[in-house]
């Protein structure tokens, strides 16, 4: 197959991968913001009086952004390898996300196991 077809499939499969990540992020946002806030009892500790939405924003800034950036980099590399063998852009994008999440889980387990 010529390089143009592979490039087009790569673009479409990356769009599928971005769609998966956007779906997961939207699900986390909806799930977190739909949880009612606990009654405020003691606000003496730092970050103890954050609403669920504020907690989500803080977690997203602290570790969510870097993790998502890493996942996107790994997804782009894996997708470049997968799209050459699989002709379906949807399947290639989904598979690259699954492999990237598995790699991220292994790295996180190794990091947490070492700590």
TrEMBL record:
Keywords: Membrane, Transmembrane, Transmembrane helix. The chain crosses the membrane at residues 15-36, 56-82, 89-112. This is Uncharacterized protein. It comes from Micromonospora coriariae.
């Amino acid at each position: 197959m010529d390089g143009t077809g592979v490039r087009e499939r790569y673009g479409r499969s990356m769009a599928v991968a971005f769609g998966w990540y956007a779906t997961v992020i939207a699900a986390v946002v909806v799930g977190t913001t739909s949880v009612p806030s606990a009654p405020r009892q003691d606000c003496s500790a730092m970050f103890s009086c954050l609403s669920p939405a504020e907690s989500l924003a803080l977690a997203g800034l602290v570790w969510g952004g870097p993790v998502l950036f890493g996942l996107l980099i790994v997804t782009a590399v894996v997708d470049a390898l997968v799209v050459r063998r699989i002709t379906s852009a949807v399947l290639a994008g989904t598979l690259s996300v699954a492999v990237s999440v598995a790699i991220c889980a292994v790295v996180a387990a190794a990091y947490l196991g070492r700590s």
